[in-house]
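Weekly sync, protein design subgroup
Attendees: M.S., D.O., the rotation student, P.L. (late)

Item 1: inverse folding check
M.S. brought a backbone from last month's batch and wanted to see whether the design step gives back something sensible before we order anything. D.O. pointed out we never logged the input encoding, so this time it goes straight into the notes. Structure tokens as presented (227 positions):
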């Protein structure tokens, strides 16, 4: 079991043992997360799926304040290094790395990736994290892809962080299919309701998940859950 705290949009802090892993921190510019004080967020690692501002906005500040190791694709990792982030680890698609909290594999995502200043963010990705207590999939921003079946074949996924907001990413129907592909019944929802483009009917999404035999976990910003 690991503890997960939701900071809005696609940002989660995952505690594995004594280590805090922060995913895609977009908190201070998010009006819905105005009650979250990022100075109190302590991260040992920051994992970034792609370069869009709504996934990296607070990465530099939190990385420097926490002395965290920033992990992403090569282009994003180097971009942050040039901004003074001293600890970083570049990856690329299909590659794995063992860290002190577990093994991370950088997997495919179908989306786009441009950094806030217009620089190339390389190709977007997601992460599979295998640790001593289990394994989970963080999809990042992505369409449904058949590549997800490979994740289900290679790993025993306990739960998956999946976007459900549609328009820019998968919607709930494709997220349910993605959960089928990776072999999990638990979907931790992300990338919905932050902006008008991705506002959805949450009751409808819940009912769709129930019909498919899935548990759709919708967290309030600032709330934590143990999975």
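Designed sequence read out in the meeting:
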């Amino acid at each position: 079991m690991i503890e997960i705290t939701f900071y809005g949009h696609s940002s989660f802090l995952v505690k594995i043992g004594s280590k805090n892993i922060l995913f895609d921190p977009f908190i201070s510019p998010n009006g819905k997360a105005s009650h979250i004080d990022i100075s109190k967020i302590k991260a040992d690692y920051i994992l970034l799926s792609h370069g869009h501002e709504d996934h990296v906005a607070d990465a530099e500040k939190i990385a420097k304040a926490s002395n965290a190791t920033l992990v992403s694709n090569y282009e994003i990792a180097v971009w942050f290094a040039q901004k003074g982030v001293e600890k970083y680890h570049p990856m690329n698609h299909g590659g794995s790395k063992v860290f002190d909290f577990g093994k991370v594999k950088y997997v495919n995502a179908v989306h786009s990736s441009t950094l806030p200043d217009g620089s190339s963010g390389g190709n977007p990705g997601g992460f599979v994290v295998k640790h001593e207590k289990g394994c989970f999939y963080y999809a990042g921003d992505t369409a449904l892809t058949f590549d997800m079946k490979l994740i289900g074949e290679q790993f025993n996924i306990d739960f998956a962080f999946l976007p459900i907001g549609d328009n820019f990413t998968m919607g709930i129907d494709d997220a349910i299919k993605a959960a089928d592909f990776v072999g999990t019944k638990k979907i931790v929802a992300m990338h919905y309701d932050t902006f008008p483009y991705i506002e959805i009917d949450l009751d409808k999404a819940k009912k769709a998940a129930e019909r498919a035999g899935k548990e759709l976990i919708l967290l309030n910003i600032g709330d934590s859950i143990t999975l």
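Discussion: Residues 172-182 form the longest helix (11 residues). The chain has six helices and 14 strands.
Action: P.L. to compare against the previous round before Friday.
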